[in-house]
Amino acid sequence: MKKFFSKYYTDLFLGKRLFIALGVCVALFLFSFFIPVLGDLPYLFFGVLLLLVLLDLVLLYRTKKGVFLRREVPERLSNGDDNELKIYLENFYGFPVSLGIIDEIPFQFQKRDIWFKAHLASREQKIITYLLRPTKRGEYDFGLTRLYVQSPLALLSRRFNIGSPKTVPVYPSFLKLRQYELMAVSNRLTDIGIKKIRRLGHSMEFDQVKSYVAGDDYRTVNWKATARKGDLMVNSYTDEKAQHVYCVIDKSRAMRMPFEGLTLLDYAINASLILSSVALVKEDKAGLITIAEKTKNVVPADRRPVQLNKIMEVLYKEKTRYLETDMEALYSTVRATLKQRSLVVFFTNFESMSALERQLPFLKRIAKFHLLLIVFFENTSLKALSEEPAKDVQGIYIKTIAEKFAYEKKLMVKELARHGILSLLTPPQNLTVNVVNRYLAIKANQQI
Questions:
Q1: Burial level of 108, CB count in 10 A (0-12/13-18/19+)?
Q2: Which stretches are transmembrane (predicted)?
Q3: What is the pTM of this model?
Q4: Are residues 206 and 113 in contact, defined by beta-carbon separation less than 8 angstroms?
Q5: What CA–CA distance (Å, rounded) separates 285 from 279?
Q6: Angstrom distance (rounded) from CA 103 to CA 433
Q7: pLDDT score, position 219
Q8: N or C, fewer C-beta in 10 Å, the chain?
Q9: Do residues 436 and 275 make contact, with C-beta atoms less than 8 angstroms apart?
């Protein structure tokens, strides 16, 4: 008996209608003491309620598996993006049912209100879709899916515990990666904000001889091909290929600053992955270096199909450190790893001129051998403060300090340019677009 009870009735819950009916029953019994006319009505009402409860119990438990449920979770989630999850439902009962669904999502989302309602007729199917946006990389543990079923009487609820715990890894933003890959293949990067760069010349890498069309540079006319075909022909050139593009990611405490749920490190990781993808599509070689108090990971530049997966596997595990960046170790790694002139995109952050000055000697050394692009971030909170009108003396002080820090960022750009180092000062939300823009501009201007 105990085994039977634990098997079937631990997942049985009382519904709201039952509590309302019991309340009415109690009220009838109470009023029957003062109103004799009610007679046996309270007993009759209670008896009917008891029969309905037994009927509801039979309806819910007469089949072992009344409702089918399957939760569809991707094999991996994309960090910082909306990931789609689905719950597939099918009703095997011979009557319509009302469903309540609790999905036990990972604790990292800090949500306790994942509750869905659905109504299914007999043999009806339905798919519930919802979105989750992770903001940290790592492993996320999904629990069970709790399904609560009610018959049309809705006096009782039967619970089904469906599925099993599942661990899903959260990788850097690969959903946007696919979008940028498709755009780069079709040369439609302008559709997502990538600017079209005007060429100041043309690459010396020959592509093909083609017929002249309006707008072609007359200096590229191929007179021999024109004489043979009897029509005006021009030489077509393409961007130089197999150039080395290295993303260097600073993992020190300067990159721990949060912005819209993600740290600056996460923004840098997402941008590095997309930049590497675009570089590979453009037939360049992509590589990666991560650095904190010492060099952490090095992925030598390559353009084989597996290169992007190698970079993603390294970036998946990266976390910010609490120490300063060892620029001497970075310089030694760059000199030992990069055997030819390369584009080095260094994702870091400077909050003061003194922080830049400490690293500047090593940056100048790297810039002697490679084309160095420093990518650092605007402090959007301070920028917003500097643009707000001051209402009192304290507000004037705050606004002045905010403007001072914002001005220092602009001074850093000028200081880097004075030493022949390229720089990109960008808000975190525009990082990816701005970095890919700059890469395309560098290739168009043949600076590598």
A1: middle
A2: 12-35, 41-61
A3: 0.73
A4: no
A5: 7
A6: 35
A7: 76
A8: N
A9: yes
Q: Are 92 and 68 in contact (CB under 8 A)?
A: yes
Share of the chain above pLDDT 90, in %: 42
**Phi, psi of 134, deg, nearest 5:** -70, 150
pLDDT digits (tens, 9 = 90+) for 126-171: 999 999 999 888 889 999 999 999 999 999 999 999 888 899 999 8
Across 420-441, average pLDDT: 90
Give dist(CA 18, CA 31) in Å, integer: 20
DSSP-derived pairing of the beta strands 125-132 and 115-120: unpaired
Q: Which residues contact 89 (CB under 8 A, 6 or more apart)?
A: 67, 68, 69, 99, 118, 120, 125, 126, 127, 128
pLDDT, one tens digit per residue, over 172-192 is 888 777 666 545 544 445 444
* Paired strand residues for 344: 246, 372
The pLDDT, as a whole number, for residue 394 is: 78
pLDDT of residue 198 exceeding 70, the answer is no
Q: Which CATH architecture has domain 174-198+240-444?
A: 3-Layer(aba) Sandwich (3.40)
Give yes or no for residue 262 having a pLDDT over 80.
yes
Does the pLDDT value for residue 293 go beyond 90?
no
Q: Which residues pair with 87 in a beta bridge?
A: 71, 128
Contacts 24+ apart (CB under 8 A), 194-203: 194/433, 194/436, 194/437, 194/440, 195/437, 195/440, 195/441, 197/437, 197/440, 197/441, 197/444, 197/445, 198/444, 199/444, 199/445, 200/444, 200/445, 201/446, 202/237, 203/237, 203/238, 203/239, 203/240, 203/446
Q: What percent of the chain has pLDDT over 70?
A: 89
Q: Would you say the C-alpha torsion 317, 322, 325, 326 has a positive or negative sign?
A: negative
